[in-house]
What we know:
Layout: E1 6-10, H1 15-26, E2 30-35, E3 54-58, H2 64-73, E4 76-79, H3 86-91, H4 93-114, E5 117-123, H5 150-171, E6 175-180, E7 183-184, H6 195-205, E8 209-212, E9 218-220, E10 222-223, H7 224-235, E11 244-247, E12 252-254, H8 255-265, E13 272-275, H9 277-281, H10 296-302, H11 310-323
Parallel strand pairs: 1-2, 1-4, 2-3, 4-5, 5-6, 6-11, 7-10, 8-13
Antiparallel strand pairs: 9-12
Helix pairs in contact: 1-7, 2-4, 4-5, 6-8, 6-11
Amino acid sequence: MDRDNHVLITGGAGFIGSHLARALLAADKQVSVIDNLSTGLHSNVADLEANPDFRLYVDTIQDVSLMQKLMMECGTVYHLASAVGVRLIMEQPVATIDTIYQGTEVVLRLARRYRNRVLITSTSEVYGKSTKVPYCEDDDRVEGPTTKHRWAYACAKALDEFLALAHWKETRLPVAIVRLFNTVGPRQRGQYGMVVPRFVEQALAGDDLIVHGDGTQSRCFCHVYDVVQALIMLVNSSTAWGQIFNVGSTEEISIRGLAELIVQRLESPSQIRTIPYSEAYGEGFEDMQRRIPSIERIRLAVGWSPTLSINDVIDDVAAEFRDGRLGD
């Protein structure tokens, strides 16, 4: 394989990674994916295995010898492998910390040796409980106590960012960081606490839509197709290295408003019901009232902004459920 044209995606059998792999193959890239299938699914990329420009490795990124081989072969690494979803984070906090930090350390250490270009996906969770909205990349972070398991994810991701920027500072390793805000779309699943596929599935079945908390908390949901374009545009821009970028929609909606919109749009007979966070996630859970990104930095850097709306998201997710295309 041509190293300059060869891309490695860690976590590439996951929701975002599988969409990214397709987009890169469509752009005539050679794509290798490594995924341990703990939350990613083989069915997400099974159809790609017939493509001679695609290779799948079912293994952990903590397998240093395999990662060394893969990173010697590729020029660019999209590092998406991570813990996924609030529910998993609450139920498996040790695995969350191990998976996030140890995996990123391997990727960056090898990238430093082989001078790979690296894009690391971080999260809006690193802003913590800050009430300053919209969130800007250089804003102060406000995290909760270490006794609240939710903050393990934000802390581990923040440490990833510190490590990546340290590599940039010391050796000018070409690394960029993306903070994702509620990416949604086809192939996303609700079992890890993802609200859009969960609501859509409940609405299509005529079941109650279960809102956690009082439903006044608000988010901005960005279609995965738009997010993938942002990731590719940043890697293709030399101005991105050493920087952090928010990637998300600025179309704010409350969680109860989202439930109402899905019921209306899908013409569902479902009712909306609220339950306390403690019932949904157990004790030790905190939520943020609003989470809205400023996307001015990425707009100025590469000209990116979302093109698809929350209605497009709902329609695409519902179409997938109706067609029975979700894998096991």
